[in-house]
Design a protein that fits this description.
Blueprint: H1 4-14, E1 18-23, H2 26-35, E2 40-42, H3 44-52, H4 62-75, E3 80-83, H5 91-103, E4 108-112, H6 131-144, E5 151-156, H7 166-179, E6 183-186, H8 194-206, E7 212-215, H9 229-235, E8 237-242, H10 245-264, H11 266-276, H12 284-288, H13 290-300, H14 303-310
Parallel strand pairs: 1-2, 1-8, 2-3, 3-4, 4-5, 5-6, 6-7, 7-8
Helix pairs in contact: 2-4, 4-5, 5-6, 6-7, 7-8, 10-11
Length: about 325
């Protein structure tokens, strides 16, 4: 097995920045790998809604999140960075969380300083734990990793939390960096450019080499923003996610297909097949790797069994 944490750090060192859409499934991750992305990000909200049909309000367990991270990591040969919520408890729970995510094959995780049960950083009703407790959880996370390259990203939701604000977020960003976090992530509640600019400037004034993590979320109103990925990288945000991208693209596509099929019946599927011809995903058996399964069958199953299995049968 390749050292995915080391692979992630190497890519980060070699490029101006790393950017990727958020995913919820191994299939999404496979698409991104084949498309050429350097890493995959497992979104907590996307996992919650796609796998369980719930909003991201802290309903998923550690086991459920780790299982999804393991399935995604197994499906691709690029590093996976995963949402690990609050570490699913206190500092002691955090230790188990790091052990499990690392064993699942991820290259790193981000943990946040919300009170549990947490909720998506873009939702109202967030509360944050005391700074001292949050720092302890970061230190616990760092103590638990076995691979020194495994990436611990410390996130603060202080900007939009009760009793928080940008100054509190800056204070926490510096504290998490001082505690040894590999990267710091501040969740911003809107597409306002000045807050991320101020956060980066203040934190990197003290920790100039600290890479920052940025969520250019498709659930916020970035459509009219002139802020580019390169602009963010120049501020110090070296890893950029569009956390809800695959979820929202898929949601829209399935909705539109369903509405069209209600209206046009079989014609919807026929038109879709015609449009899809020549697309990289047209032959989804090939995309899924069925050819490799056949190769392994030929290597390990008796020849007579292979002959009976495929002779005269119809299909890919």
């Amino acid at each position: 097995m390749k050292n995915m944490p080391e692979k992630f750090r190497r890519a980060l060192a070699e490029k101006e920045y790393l950017a990727t859409p958020g995913v919820a499934t191994p299939m999404d991750a496979m698409v991104l790998e084949k498309a050429g992305f350097d890493f995959v990000y497992m979104s907590g909200y996307a996992t919650s809604l796609t796998v369980f049909g719930w909003p991201d309000v802290g309903l998923l367990t550690e086991t459920e999140m780790v299982t999804n991270a393991r399935n995604i990591s197994r499906a691709v040969n690029v590093p996976v960075i995963a949402d690990a919520d609050t570490g699913f408890g206190n500092a002691i729970n955090m230790i188990r969380t790091i052990e499990d995510y690392e064993a699942a094959g991820t290259a790193g995780i981000h943990i946040e300083d919300q009170v549990s049960p947490k909720r998506c950083g873009h939702l109202a009703g967030k509360n944050i734990i005391p700074l001292e407790e949050a720092v302890g959880k970061v230190k616990a996370a760092l103590s638990a990793k076995q691979n020194r390259d495994f990436v611990i990203i410390a996130r603060t939701d202080a900007v939009a939390a009760v009793g928080g604000g940008i100054e509190e977020a800056i204070k926490r960003g510096k504290a998490y960096a001082q505690a040894g976090a590999d990267m710091v992530f501040c969740e911003f509640p809107s597409s306002d450019v000045e807050m991320p600019r101020k956060f980066a400037a203040e934190v990197r004034k003290v920790y100039p080499n600290l890479p920052l993590f940025f969520n250019y979320s498709s659930s916020l109103d970035w459509s009219d923003s002139k802020l580019t990925f390169s602009d963010l990288a120049a501020m110090g945000y070296k890893v950029i996610i569009v956390s809800m991208a695959c979820l929202r693209v898929s949601l829209q596509a399935v909705w539109d297909y369903a509405q069209d099929m209600i209206k046009r019946k079989d014609q919807t599927g026929k038109d879709f097949e015609r449009k899809l011809k020549g697309h990289p995903t047209y032959n989804f058996h090939q995309f899924a790797g069925l050819a490799k399964i056949k190769e392994k069958e030929a290597l390990f199953l008796p020849g007579e069994e292979i002959r009976k299995k495929y002779e005269g049968s119809v299909g890919f």
